[in-house]
Design a protein that fits this description.
The protein is mainly β. It has a domain of about 110 residues. About 0% of the residues lie in helices and about 50% in strands. It has no helices and twelve strands. It has a four-stranded antiparallel beta sheet with strand order 3-6-7-8, with no helix packed on it. Strands 9-10-11-12 form a four-stranded antiparallel beta sheet, with no helix packed on it. The radius of gyration is 17 Å and the shape is globular. About 10% of the residues are buried.
Length: about 160
């Protein structure tokens, strides 16, 4: 007799700490409101990023008047169920609450989290782990060792 228990691993962050959480039964779910611009999503991650400015090609944290108050930008990463299943979108949220889709990718997102004191995004996809800059450009990509082996499809 064989028995298996579904296990999910997620990258989480709380304040200045980050880590991995193991969910053995189901993932916690909390919904505050609908975002119609990215409706039809399988998974959605809302990440509060530190704003940075590029000076001579180097990203520098944006200075603020109060050292205890940091300016945060919100990045939303979503994997589609409709209209194109398995593709992902990166959107930014403006101050007024408007959502602008800035990047579309033809790969399903497994997880996303903030790293390096909220100045980089860890983007986990089926065959790689990507570290992204706050402006959504790739900083580093770590390919899966067994990249060419066929895998089972990710199901919702």
């Amino acid at each position: 007799m064989a028995f298996s228990l579904g296990v999910s691993l997620a990258a989480t962050s709380a304040g200045s700490l980050g880590g991995l959480s193991l969910f053995q039964r189901d993932l916690p779910l909390k919904t505050k409101r609908k975002l119609h611009a990215i409706g039809g999503a399988w998974g959605m991650w809302s990440l509060p990023l530190k704003q940075s400015v590029k000076v001579n090609g180097v990203s520098v944290e944006k200075p603020s008047a109060d050292p205890h108050q940091t300016d945060n930008g919100t990045l939303i990463l979503a994997t589609d169920a409709n209209p194109s299943p398995g593709s992902s979108r990166i959107a930014t949220k403006a101050v007024r609450g408007d959502i602008n889709i800035t990047t579309r990718m033809q790969i399903a997102t497994v997880g996303a989290a903030l790293f390096f004191q909220r100045t980089a995004i860890l983007h986990v996809v089926a065959n790689a782990i990507c570290v992204l800059e706050p402006d959504h450009t790739s900083r580093q990509k770590i390919q899966d060792v067994d990249e060419n082996l066929p895998r089972a499809k990710i199901r919702a």
